[in-house]
Amino acid sequence: MTTNSTNKLKLTGLLLLVSLGAFAQPSDRYLSRNEYIDMWKNEAIAQMVAHKIPASITLAQGILESGYGNSELARYGNNHFGIKCHDWKGETMLKDDDHKDDCFRKYETANESFDDHSKFLAKRGRYSSLFDLKTTDYKGWAKGLKKAGYATNPKYANLLIDLIEENELYKYDAMFAVASNKEVAKPAPVSGEIAVVKPQTYIHATKQSSNNIKYVEVGPGDTFYKIAKEFDMGLWQLYKYNDLSKADILQIGDRIYLQPKRNKNKAKEHVARSGQTMRDISQLYGIKLKKLYKRNTIIKGEQPVKGQVVLL
Fold this sequence. Notes:
Membrane-bound Lytic Murein Transglycosylase D, Chain A; 3 domains; mainly alpha
């Protein structure tokens, strides 16, 4: 064999190894949320047709559980839904979760993960009542999954709902009738497009606090995203102005400020009621929470007792 032939053979072997390595290891590039949705929306719709699980729920769970497909479990085990071994007979992957070295299912492809996720829900009795819901009832599904114990996070349902509404994933649920060759509900699609009916929107009446700061009260079905979108604000503004984080849950009647709170109020003091927190008082009078703590020399995180005088 000539020197040139030997070099060509070595080069061919090297290229083959590089090629095989590319398939053996996950990509170093991380997916964005939009890329993940584009990549898996058709699979989610297919699973919806086959098992009657809303595509929006499947996508939202995939986003949340796999970090848009970027989690270690998704990248190395093709497990996009955090499903643990249970009675699994296939390959497994150990990862710290609720306990050290929890056992998770491992799949050859991510598509298998989507299919197994649908079957996991369909075959377990505790989720059976969810299949009586319409495929457009993503809120019912989200709350039902949390109630049935799919995840331990107490805010799991709200996290799913926020993901669905922020990314308009509910539009894929409307494709069930088309994809399963059923009659499409009126109004009929225009120019071949699917008619998407968005959830009803609660219209807010803007009010003013005693500090002359604009605010709204949380209504039925409200989310941070809905309020931010209605008033053309960033989510970060709502969180900052109201001393909240994206992990907090809105309750009907909550006061949400649309402007920064002030350093003080015309009123001089407030007598704390039973169970009232410093943030409650901050929201009531439109005073920045950090200023309230500083003025009363109270350690951040501590709360007043009933009858305690809080300086405003």
